[in-house]
Design a protein that fits this description.
Layout: H1 3-22, E1 29-41, E2 47-50, E3 74-75, E4 78-79, E5 82-86, E6 91-97, E7 109-116, E8 123-127, E9 140-149, E10 157-163, E11 169-175, E12 183-190, E13 200-206, E14 210-220, H2 233-240, E15 246-249, H3 252-256, E16 279-280, E17 286-287, H4 293-302, E18 306-311, E19 315-316, E20 320-321, H5 329-343, H6 349-356, E21 367-370, H7 382-396, E22 401-404, E23 415-422, H8 424-429, E24 461-469, H9 478-493, E25 498-503, E26 507-509, E27 522-524, E28 529-531, H10 533-543, E29 548-555, E30 561-568, E31 573-580, E32 586-591, E33 601-607, E34 626-630, E35 636-641, E36 645-652
Parallel strand pairs: 1-32, 2-15, 2-25, 15-18, 18-21, 21-22, 22-23, 23-24, 24-25, 26-27
Antiparallel strand pairs: 1-29, 3-4, 5-8, 6-7, 7-14, 8-13, 9-12, 9-14, 10-11, 10-13, 16-17, 19-20, 27-28, 29-30, 30-31, 31-36, 32-35, 33-34, 33-36
Helix pairs in contact: 5-6, 5-7, 9-10
């Protein structure tokens, strides 16, 4: 080529590039995908759920119980969230009676001493619920309580749901037959043509003088799949949309507790609620233990997930630990019993207990995690503790995949659990963290000290058991969603190595005092819930995931363009995830040489004008994915990715 011609060509290219930059766009990138060249298998369990009792995730959240402090715990100020009711000239006193209760697990009760009352001037107690009690029109609320009286002439007990603002009962029921022995009584409250509101409370009262003892007062709305002692419909529906493959349970610090005596003792969480003593969670409030081991398993069943069971391994957060050897043996046996409760047949000891609790069929169990974040244990005992659990579990259940939570040398774990809590910029820099053969990256900063030096594709596999881009409060903003999406493209590209991953924490009660940790995926109050932009990124990625990665190459992509491409072999579809974390639009030329594609493609896009744009309880759908159809599609396609956007293309192969 003559020198002058070449110079003119360079000038034309320079003008073209400057025009793109001036118009707010990056120079075009090129992405070449080879759908006919699968490169690795995508883990079928890649995306799952991780929750724990934090941010009132269970009590006051997913667990649909409407009564707060149903077992009458108190402090110096009185009985928490319960208050005396004295209508008109009625007179009464309330106190905790430590001498009587309906069970050994609940040996105390609320004593209501009614000095004066009549049918129109009743006395009793009220409960304010979890920042109110959400009521809807023409809805039945099912309740119960354990009660006894000083004599049989206490008369009928009135149970009412009362509106905070009008003082009027919107639903009432009468409970008769209160005797002098402890007994459970049930009732149903049906609302009429009311305005939906959370400004309501529960009242239990009597119209005669006498003494009444109460314990385990409970009230439930209609639950997901109508399960008794079940879950909030709206939160379960949001999780179902994430297409989770597994549930890590009971999750995180909730497993180990601050102290050994405050760990999740699964045997105290099964059977009737009256036999569950409750326990303190590590996030400084009491857990009702209404969500026990079987409820976790029912959660898995409802959302078609497999349980990933975490067993207590002898370490608690206050640096208490159990020495390996004889001291640890009871805890090892407890884990074996727990595994049998989950997966054993009804002819086994603990499988029979599960059957007695209402679920004869065993649950499929493939993964067991030994402990949680044991890299915090300064005693250095985890290697020996893990090995003791590993040998005992493998001896009885050789097919179970066992997960280590800290580096161990004595045995080779099947899977290791890594946790990452970072900012968006760090995820942009480290989206290729697992792309390299040894998994090393100098740019990733872990939130904690649990670092594994190598990611060997010959094993152990990797479970990213907790991760999140921590930007936004109480829930993530669009900037966090972009960081999450960039990170997930790397998880997908390397899902032959990363077999499971779970965002954490997932749930947060957005009422004042409801949050202990920001940033959290799904927000809610008593009345409603919403998904954050990061939640919708999770939904998009999990909804379009193939079974194989394919050969691909990105050129001129810049530092804030990320992608993954997977193939659904049965449906003959390519799922292409594209993330533009830049403030500029990004032109992209997509090429799929050697294949024929359908003339149209599905596109799902989440985008925002700014990284700080977000959803909230007041504005829950400011940012939601938008679906559209691309026409005139062929094996070469030019698309433009808007600024701050996450995009999925579903392309059908022919």
């Amino acid at each position: 080529m003559p020198e002058k011609t070449f110079a003119r060509l360079l000038a034309i290219v320079a003008i073209a590039v400057s025009t793109v930059v001036a118009s707010g766009q990056n120079a075009p990138a090129t992405l070449t995908i080879h759908p006919d060249q699968p490169t690795s298998t995508v883990s079928p369990t890649l995306y799952g759920l991780m929750t724990e009792e934090i941010n009132y995730s269970y009590d006051g959240g997913l667990y649909a119980e409407m009564v707060r402090n149903r077992t009458f715990r108190g402090d110096w100020s009185g009985i928490l969230y319960w208050y005396l009711v004295e209508d008109g000239n009625a007179r009464a006193k309330i106190e905790v009676d430590e001498s009587t209760g309906p069970s050994s697990a609940l040996p105390k009760s609320l004593k209501v001493n009614i000095e004066q009352a009549d049918a129109k001037n009743q006395a009793g107690v009220l409960n304010v619920g979890w920042w109110g009690m959400a009521l809807h029109r023409n809805t039945i609320y099912k309740g119960s309580f354990y009660a006894k009286a000083g004599s049989t002439d206490i008369g009928p007990i009135t149970v009412s749901l009362v509106n905070d603002n009008t003082g009027k009962a919107v639903a009432s029921a009468t409970v008769d037959g209160i005797g002098t022995d402890w007994k459970q009584h049930t009732f149903a409250l049906k609302t009429g043509e009311i305005e939906a509101s959370a400004s309501n409370h529960l009242v239990i009262s009597a119209g005669r003088a006498g003494t009444l003892w109460l314990q385990l007062v409970s009230l439930f709305p209609p639950t997901y799949h109508d399960r008794t002692n079940g879950f909030r419909k709206d939160l379960m529906e949001k999780m179902a949309a994430m297409h989770p493959a597994f549930l890590r349970m009971p999750g995180g610090n909730y497993l180990e507790g601050d102290h050994i005596k405050e760990r999740f003792e699964w045997k105290k969480t099964i059977g009737p609620l009256v036999d569950r003593p409750t326990h303190r969670s590590p996030w400084n409030y009491q857990s009702s233990d209404g969500m026990g081991l079987l409820e976790f398993l029912g959660w898995c069943e409802d959302l078609h997930m497999q349980p990933l069971l975490a067993v207590y391994a002898g370490y608690s957060l206050s640096q208490e630990h159990v020495n390996p050897g004889a001291d640890l043996e009871p805890y090892v046996q407890d884990a074996l019993d727990e595994i049998e409760y989950v997966s054993g047949g009804p002819d086994t000891k603990w499988g029979a207990e599960r059957a007695k609790d209402g679920h004869p069929a065993p649950f499929k169990l493939s993964y067991v995690e030994i402990g949680n974040e044991d890299w915090f244990d300064r005693s250095g005992s985890y290697d020996e503790r893990y090995t003791q659990f590993y040998k005992a579990i493998k001896a009885k259940y050789p097919d179970l995949q066992l997960i280590a939570t800290a580096p161990v040398k004595s045995v080779k774990p099947d899977v290791i659990d890594e946790h990452y809590y970072v900012r968006a910029t760090q995820n942009f820099h480290d989206a290729a963290h697992y792309d390299t053969p040894d998994g090393n990256s100098s740019s990733m900063q872990k939130w904690d000290s649990g670092h594994f030096d190598r990611a060997d594709r010959n094993g152990p596999k990797i479970f990213v058991g907790e991760w999140a881009t921590r930007e936004g409060s109480p829930t993530p903003n669009m900037g966090a969603a972009l960081g999450d999406a960039a990170w997930m493209t790397g998880l997908e590209r390397n899902s032959d190595l990363v077999v499971m991953a779970a965002y954490a924490p997932m749930l947060v009660n957005v009422n004042p005092g409801g949050m202990q940790w920001e940033t959290d995926l799904i927000g809610y109050n008593a009345m409603k819930s919403y998904g954050s932009p990061a939640y919708y990124a999770q939904v998009m990625f999990a909804s379009y995931l193939g079974d194989h990665t394919v050969a691909s190459r990105l050129e001129n992509g810049g530092e804030k363009l990320f992608y993954s491409a997977t193939l659904n072999t049965a449906k003959k579809q390519i799922y292409l995830k594209l993330v533009n974390a830049s403030s500029d639009a990004q032109p992209l030329e997509l090429a799929m040489p050697g294949v024929h594609v359908a003339a149209s493609a599905r596109m799902v896009r989440l985008s925002a004008p700014d990284t700080q744009t977000t959803n909230s309880i007041e504005d829950p759908t400011r940012l939601v994915p938008v679906e559209s159809t691309l026409h005139n599609v062929n094996s070469k396609l030019m698309v433009t990715l808007p600024p701050y956007s996450i995009q999925v293309l579903q392309i059908d192969l022919q």
